[in-house]
Design goal:
- There is one protein chain.
- The chain has 341 residues and is of the alpha+beta class.
- It is 18% helix and 29% strand.
- It has a nine-stranded mixed β-sheet. Strands 4-11-16-13-14 form a five-stranded mixed β-sheet, with no helix packed on it.
- α3 packs antiparallel against α4.
Length: 341
């Protein structure tokens, strides 16, 4: 059971910036803001049940984005450019191709996740020409497809059916980024969202779009930024642990790229390797976020996020006062202190 002072706040009314800083952020506790983003344009325009994916397909143009695809998910580890595990496939897509794939998988649940595309191959007479068009369409490696020839013979194929077994697609794309403006591919979507009122005084580091087409789970990790996660469509379950629970979660080695991630499989922990993990759930809290809700996750708080089928979210990251106040010339000093621990 979490300490009372660390309990997640549940707020029906949105605080003003001053109240947020004094009552929530300064106490370093998570908070749920019910219905916080229901007034966004995105709340209705991006809704998959009312043509939201088609709307996004029209808006994004030919932007190139990164996504992870997995055949053995649902757990994904880390940033899509950094420390994914070997069962996650990291690809760079054109946005129209990726959203077409999301739409296709979303309409093929009854087929066990098999995605079927029909491509017009009129005038193509060789297998290499057909493969080239297929790979150009989805921009994925050759060995990820099952190519099925028509019964009427290869030379006279007019349409080729491609079946792809894709269990999960996870998309993380910057809408705004101060630290790396070159990575911003979906800035056009910013007019569909609004900065939550309680963040009006914050200097944001980045805004990101998150989307998955099937149930997915993040690894247990913490972020080096203050974070507000806003669910636009679908539902997310977030399990939270305070920084004080770190010894029970066994963070990855300091020298690796995933040092902010837990090394423990919390569903089936190996207690011979991680004996303290048995107590980890005693420090955890669980919250459910529905469409329109937002969650403040303070930096340093471990969290594991489960997303249901086809969930769309936006998050806002900014640096805490502590991190903002650390001068770069003191990095070596702080590193020396850390290495002594």
């Amino acid at each position: 059971m979490a300490e009372e002072s660390l309990r997640v706040c549940q707020l029906e009314e949105i605080p003003c910036p001053r109240e947020f800083v004094s009552q929530i952020e300064s106490r370093n506790i998570p908070a749920v803001f019910k219905g916080c983003v229901k007034n966004w344009k995105a709340f209705s325009l991006w809704d998959p049940s009312s043509g939201g994916l088609d709307y996004l397909l029209e808006r994004v143009g030919s932007s190139m984005v990164e996504a992870m695809l997995s055949r053995s998910a649902p757990v994904f580890y880390g940033d899509i450019r950094g420390h994914e595990r070997n069962f996650n496939l990291n690809y760079r897509f054109s946005c129209p191709s990726l959203l077409s794939l999301v739409i296709a998988t979303n309409t093929s649940r009854s087929q066990g996740g098999i995605v079927k595309f029909l491509l017009n191959l009129k005038g193509m007479s060789s297998k290499d020409q057909i493969r080239s068009k297929v790979l150009c369409f989805l921009e994925m490696p050759r060995n990820k497809f099952i190519l099925r020839r028509s019964q009427i013979g290869f030379p006279s194929i007019k349409v080729l059916q491609i079946s792809v077994q894709i269990f999960v697609i996870v998309l993380q794309v910057p809408i705004m980024s101060i630290e790396n403006e070159e990575r911003v591919q979906l800035g056009t979507l910013r007019e569909d969202i609004q900065r939550p009122a309680f963040l009006e005084t914050k200097e944001l580091a980045s805004i990101n779009l998150w989307m998955n087409n099937a149930h997915s789970r993040s690894s247990t990790h913490y972020d080096p930024h203050q974070n507000v996660l806003c669910v636009v469509s679908g539902c997310k379950q977030v399990v939270l642990w305070p920084p004080s629970a770190s010894p029970f979660l066994y963070p990855m080695p300091l020298y690796g790229e995933a040092s902010n991630h837990s090394a423990v499989n919390l569903e089936k922990p190996d207690l011979s390797i991680h004996p303290r993990a048995e107590q980890s759930m005693e420090y955890s809290q669980k919250v459910i976020l529905h469409a329109g809700d937002a969650l403040f996750i303070p930096e340093g708080w471990f969290h594991q996020v489960d997303s249901e089928d086809l969930t769309i979210a936006v998050n806002f990251w900014w640096r805490s006062n502590l991190m903002s106040g650390m001068s770069e010339h003191m990095d070596a000093y702080y590193l020396r202190l850390l290495l002594r621990r």
